[in-house]
Each structure stands twice: as C-alpha cells, then as structure tokens.
Design a protein that fits this description.
Shape: globular
Number of strands: 22
Strand order of the largest sheet: 13-12-11-5-2-1-15-14
Distance between the termini: 49 Å
Helix content: 25-40%
Bound molecules: 1-O-alpha-D-glucopyranosyl-D-fructose, calcium ion
Largest sheet: 8 strands, parallel
C-alpha cells in the first residue's frame, strides 16, 4: 500500500491571474494580488494552485502567446514577485504549479523575429514552407490543414516569402520540435522555473506539438455529425495531432523534474492538457506525466441525470491504465461555468462529486462560490477567439463570460480592483455572491460546503478508498467510498442530479447541500448498497416547481 504523493492528496485550484486579484489598480489581476490572497487557500483547505500564464506576452491570447518564457509580464509583476509568491505559498504548505506553453510562441518572441529574417540558428525554429503556387503564381498553402478557428493554419510571411504553421492564432506560430535546438531551449525553460521552486507544470496544448514533416498531405474531412452545415471547415487531425514523437519530449521534461526531485526529495507534478481519447491520453502516464480527465468537462452535457453522470465517471475509471491516477476537471478558462452550463442549482452537487471521487480534483476559480457568467457585448469582447468570428457568432466562441473578476466582497468591483474599469466587468450578483458574505453566513453556503468537503477529503478513505457505485437512476447517483478490509470510516455520497428538487435539508450529515449529501455509512448500509437498496430513499425527492 504505497503512500500517496502530494498531488494525489490535494485539490488543484486554477487561478486565471488577470481575473483573481489586482494589487496595483490597473484593472488587471497580478501576482502580488495572488500572494495577498494565499490565506484564502488555507481557509479552503486547498494545497495547490495552478497559475495560468503570467509570462511576458503581447496578450493576443491573454498570455498563451508568450514572447519571453523566462520573464514575468509587467502587467503581472516581476520575477521577484513570483519568487515571493512561491515563498509565501510554501510557507503555508501550498504547492505552486505553473502553466507551460510549449507548442507555440508569440510572433513577438525574439526567436520568431529572427526566424523571419532567417538568422541562424533561428531560421529553423518554426514550421516554414514555400507552399504551392496558383496559376497566377500566387503563393497558396501547401495543404488543407486548419487552425482551431476553422481557417487555414498556414500564414503567409511577406518578409520571408514563406508560410508558417499555426495551430491557433496567427500571432501564435508553432515551434519546430524536429529541431534539437528548440527541444533544448524549451528544456531550459523547464529548468528555469524548477530553479525558482515550482512544484509542477500544467502543459498547454501538448497534443499539437508535432506535425508530419511531409506537408503535402491533406487532412481527411472530419466526419463529425452535421459537419456539412458548419460555416467553417472541420478536418481530422491525423497529420497534426497526437504524434508519438511528443512522448519523447515529455520524457525529457520528466527527466528534468526528476533531477530536481533528487535534490530535495519533493516529487514534481506534470499534468497535461489533452482532450484526446483514452488510447492516446493514457500514453502520457508511461512518459511520466498525468493527463487531465476532461471528459466530464467536454462531453457531459445538460440536462444532467444521475445515470449520465454515473456513466461518465464509470468511463473515466474504466479507461484508466493500471495504477493510473485521474485528475478530474469540470471546468476551466476555456469552458463554460457550471452554473451556466448545467444550472445554478447543480453547482454544489457537482462540487460534492468532484471532491469525493477518487482522483485529484481541479477547481476553476470562483466555482466554489457558484460564480455566474457575465454578459459581454461584441464591443466589450476581449477574447480573440470571439472577435475572430465577428459580431454574429462571437458568443459561440468568446471565453470572456467565464473569465470575469473573482468576487471577494461587496465593495466596488467585488474587491477585485480599485480601478473603476476592470478588464472585464464584474458580475452584478457580486453584492450577494462573494467570499466575505459566504464565509460569514450562518446558513451553509457554497463556499462553506466546499471548504468542509475539502477538509473531509483529507481523510484517507477519500484518497485511497475504492468507489462503490450504488443506486442510480434519472435523478440519483450514489456511491460509497471505503477502504476494503479496513476500519476506517465509510462514506455514502448521494447526489440528486436530476430534474426533481430535494425535499429535505439534510442538516444532520457532516456535509450536505440541497442536492448532495455525504454521510458516514455503516456496515449495514454497505450491505444494502450491495443489494442496491440505498440511495434513492436517502435523498427524498420532490417534483420540481
Ligand atoms: O487550449 C488548447 C486546446 O487544446 C483547447 O482549447 C482546444 O483547442 C479546444 O478546446 C478544442 O475543443 C489551450 C489553452 O487552454 C487556451 O486557453 C489557449 O487559447 C490555447 O491552448 C492556445 O495556447
Ligand atoms: Ca505544433
């Protein structure tokens, strides 16, 4: 019975630095702001934070376009500020995970600027090609490969008279990992942050790291259902994603992690952003990294039901490789907020689910308050993913609604910033939905529920115990956590994820909300669970309003 590592026993809390806390009143959150809020994580019983990018960037994709991997953007502060953040976090026993964006740089990165001028050794740092010529001799992309925005991934560069490849925005040229110099540069970036004391990395868009070297092969048209009706093209990505070469790169990074781990015996955590199917996703474990389990974030769609959620959880566990540890995600800076996606009344129950499953939960800032999405007009839209689609379609793509400022208290701008105009508007419900109010309320709030759950899940049974599914139907999903053959407490978790509301307030149980209850389960309850008797009766339901 191996002891668990720190990243298996903690919650990971995702901070979007622009939106968390603004220390200097420019309307944009920053590192000092994060440092000033570290006690919040102590209150929440959260032991690890993941910071979305704070590196030097022209902010075309809000930091996911990095122009210097080894410096902090002045908007967010300085390297000193970061070092102080790490120091203060570690003092409180909080681990720090940074975002690592290896697939592309900003077009303002010095490497790209030099590459455009064919300066050695940078000429081959990116994916350049001549393309084809049409009958008038005009340059055309070499193939039909598409960026994430449904248009060609090849961008013409006047100066160099060549195309460069971009999986994302034109301002995010893809690096060429077939060039060993690039691999070495990025290894140095990993070392740089390890030397500054980080405990782990979340690796961005890793599935996109390699493209086939033969650029004259088209991608097959995607056979997504209904694809003909899309205004933009959709392709498969057999030439541009999930290439096995990626795994060698991951192994290289893991080696660097291990060098640091050897020095101070502190394990380092590498978690991979991948929306890929298990067959590919599971390869990352063997390379020394943990993929995010994003299925509940991507494929679980409203309306919720007990059965649907059970099946989704079941799939995640079934698909794990032996000894594979899941890292569950219900939302992030790219995906809708839980309240807007499923309905506000489900947020607490989903937090109960996330925090009582076996695996590392990852919480996007504000979900512990049940934060709501903001309304953003086209004129107010900041996200290029929205802007690029124009005034008619921006709402389908803009990620602004779920990136609104964190709601700390009921003072102006929710205590996020002293600036009258934060970079995105604060949700108007901040007056009643904020950390301060939810901490103080005599009646249990989402925040108090979250903190209680986070404390409860420090019990070994929530970390090591098995998940035993019980009664499940349209409404209820219930399960038990227990360590087989041990005297440790067992817990029964009953979630009402259906269309009926819950009649009772289960104030007798240590952790409860209208739609989710966690109770200590006795042996006889376990027996009844084996007989599939328990679940429904433990959570009385009433027909919806
Ligand atoms: O996202 C990349 C990514 O893989 C997904 O956004 C994916 O393209 C999409 O969900 C398709 O369903 C990362 C970051 O999380 C995002 O914020 C950045 O904009 C992007 O990389 C580019 O760096
Ligand atoms: Ca790439």
């Amino acid at each position: 019975d191996a002891a668990l590592e720190w990243w298996q026993t903690t919650i990971i809390y995702q901070i979007y630095p622009r939106s968390f806390s603004d220390s200097n009143g420019d309307g944009i959150g920053d590192l000092k702001g994060v440092t000033s809020k570290l006690d919040y994580f102590t209150y929440l019983n959260i032991g690890a934070i993941w910071l979305s990018p704070f590196f030097k960037s022209p902010m075309k994709d809000f930091g996911y376009d990095v122009s210097d991997f080894k410096d902090v953007d002045p908007i967010f502060g300085t390297l000193k500020d970061f070092e102080q953040l790490v120091q203060e976090a570690h003092k409180r026993g909080i681990k720090v995970i940074v975002d690592f964006v290896p697939n592309h740089t900003s077009n303002q990165h010095d490497w790209f600027q030099r590459s455009c001028r064919r300066e050695k050794p940078y000429d081959d740092y990116y994916i350049w090609c001549d393309g084809k010529r049409d009958k008038d001799g005009k340059p055309q992309p070499p193939n039909n490969w598409l960026s994430q925005f449904g248009r060609t991934a090849w961008r013409w560069h006047e100066g160099r008279q060549q195309f460069y490849y971009t999986a994302f925005l034109a301002e995010q040229p893809d690096l060429n990992y077939r060039n060993p110099l690039v691999v070495k540069e990025m290894n140095d970036v990993v070392r740089f942050w390890m030397e500054r004391g980080v405990d782990g990395m979340r690796v961005d868009a890793l599935d996109y790291l390699f493209e086939d070297p033969d650029v004259f092969q088209d991608e097959p048209r995607s056979n997504l259902p209904g694809v003909e009706s899309f205004e933009f093209e959709y392709n498969d990505h057999i030439h541009t994603m999930e290439k096995p070469e990626i795994l060698d790169i991951v192994r290289g990074w893991r080696q660097i992690f291990d060098e640091f781990q050897k020095k101070d015996r502190e394990p380092r955590f590498m978690v991979i952003e991948t929306y890929a199917k298990p067959k590919w996703r599971n390869q990352y474990y063997k390379a020394g990294a943990n993929p995010f389990n994003l299925d509940m974030c991507l494929t679980l769609q409203p309306p919720l039901s007990g059965t649907k959620v059970r099946d989704s959880v079941d799939q995640e566990y079934t698909n794990l490789p032996d000894n594979g540890w899941p890292t569950f995600v219900l939302g992030n800076h790219d995906r809708k907020r839980l309240s807007s996606k499923f309905g506000a009344e489900y947020v607490d129950a989903l937090n109960v689910l996330l925090l009582t499953l076996r695996g590392t939960p990852c919480t996007y800032y504000g979900e512990e308050l049940g934060m709501q999405e903001i309304e953003v007009t086209f004129e107010q839209t900041k996200d290029p993913w929205g802007k690029n689609y124009g005034p008619k379609r921006f709402k389908e793509f803009s990620r602004d609604p779920w990136r609104a400022p964190m709601q700390w208290d009921d003072t102006k701008n929710a205590g996020f910033s002293s600036n009258p105009l934060p970079w995105l508007p604060v949700h108007p419900d901040y007056v009643t939905r904020n950390v301060k109010v939810q901490q103080k309320s005599p009646k249990q709030t989402s925040l108090q529920l979250y903190a209680a759950l986070a404390k409860l899940r420090q019990e070994p049974v929530f970390q090591k115990g098995e998940v035993l599914f019980s009664v499940t139907n349209d409404n209820v999903f219930s399960y038990v956590r227990q360590i087989p053959g041990s005297d440790a407490s067992r817990y029964l978790i009953v979630l009402n994820l259906g269309q009926m509301s819950t009649k009772e307030d289960y104030s007798g149980s240590p952790v409860n909300s209208a739609r989710g209850v966690v109770v200590q389960a006795t042996c006889s309850v376990i027996d009844r669970i084996r007989n599939k008797e328990v679940g429904l009766k433990d959570l009385e339901l009433a027909p919806g309003d």
